[in-house]
Description:
By secondary structure, the protein is α+β, with helices and mostly antiparallel strands. The chain contains 9 helices and 12 strands. Helix 9 (341-357) links the parallel strand 11 and strand 12 (363-365).
Amino acid sequence: MERQINQELYKKLKKVNSVLRVQKKKLLDERNALKKWGDDLSRLNDLSKAIAGTLDTDKIVLSAATSMQDLTPHDVACVVLFKQKKLWVLSPMKLYDEDTEGIKELVLKTIRKIVGSEDDNNYKVEVKCLKDPETECSGFNSEMSNRLFYPMDIGDIRIGALHLIRKVDKPFTEHEHSLISMLVSTLTLALRNSEIHREVKELATTDSLTGLFNNRYFHESLTRTFKSTMRYQNPVSLLMIDIDNFKQINDQHGHQAGDAVLQEISNRLIRSLREIDVPARYGGDEIAIILPETSVEQAFYAAKRLKRLLEEHPVSFKEQSINVTASFGVASCPNPMIKSVEDVIAVADKALYDAKKYGRNRIEVSESLFIQDNSFLGPFVF
């Protein structure tokens, strides 16, 4: 009898022990899950501090992409911003051109379908390898992969989207989905702040009609460049451009047509210049262009190219074709005759005055300019 009682007690204890082992394992799993959540939230907090400390869009995107790789390993992260028309393709491994093109098409297609944005191929694409550029992407197929897509919204404003891509054999978990959702909220706020900062900066430095830099920014930029030229003797040139008979265009076609001419000419100049050049609306129909690292000879040929660009292509406005020409004045330094920023502007302005005086639609270079070996160059006229 006693033996039977002991056997029953043993079975009960064994059962209880089995239940306790299951509960212990469950508690350990929950503890590990909580620890992982704690570690991941700590990483998210570090990311928030990192991207809150900068207003540089590229730094924000790269910081977020690096943190996402630690939180949720993936093959490709894509960040797209609609206003800037920019797409970042970020991967821990090297991507080939055909991979990048396929990813771009996939992301823009998804944007059109889910977000309602146009499938526009005019996006500037920046590809970055975040870790080892020697590790190549083998057999990557963006169409046959797991994907997470997150629109980036601030209230009713949709500023962009995040797209994560991972190979078929690695589906995203619910935990990873929750983490990325939280990260996207932080990323969206940081990118919106960066966008507002960029817009305010552009308003402070850009002419609203033409999209060129404004007069104040022109003077600040010329002052910085001139100081560098005086210190290091690296050449800089200044083009002053005046649209010929602009008042006549306004009188014949109306002020809206005049504005359209200014806008079209400005767009042509912006597209034709280097990134380091500074095109600015100097005043009215007068445009100034700072050409860093450009000698007087190079500036003359740049002016010649821009002159052709304007005169060979009339401006279209409401079914009208408006012929446009411009006069150019060129100044360059270092030059013994130029001692200040005001001198640079005065020399270029005098050359522009001569170009208009002697018939318009021409280029004049100041007679006082010297080439680098200090031999007299003489006036250029075209």
